[in-house]
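Troubleshooting log. The previous structure file for this entry was overwritten by mistake, so regenerating from the original sequence record. Sequence copied from the archived sheet and checked twice against the printout by T.R.
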Amino acid sequence: MATHAPTPGATARPSVIQLAIKEKPALYAAFIPYFPEGGIFIPTGRDYRLGDDVYLLLTVMDNPQRFPIAGKVAWITPANAAGNKTQGIGVRFPSDEKAKQLRQVIEDILGPVGEAGMRPTHTL
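Regenerated output below.
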């Protein structure tokens, strides 16, 4: 579950989100491999717009490292979306070394993107 903390001295954006994904099925459902840099879906009822800055502190499974990611909202699933999709946002990872490391960690856990078949995810 994502928690939101206001950024001191800033307006409502960029927001800081802490997210811990502890199970492989949840990671599969949240990972967005379709962006060249990778991305992650974050369930949230908060209003965002495409392009909003989001600072994400992400922990994945039993990896002790917490990944700080300065991403951008690139996907929005509104409330009451078709197919009972979970409301939230897709955050696109930046083109930096931390994001490359995070994508590699996620792909090491999940395996190649096509290998798992086309099971439903929070995005596509």
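Residues 6-11 have pLDDT under 50 and may be disordered. Archived copy saved in two places this time.
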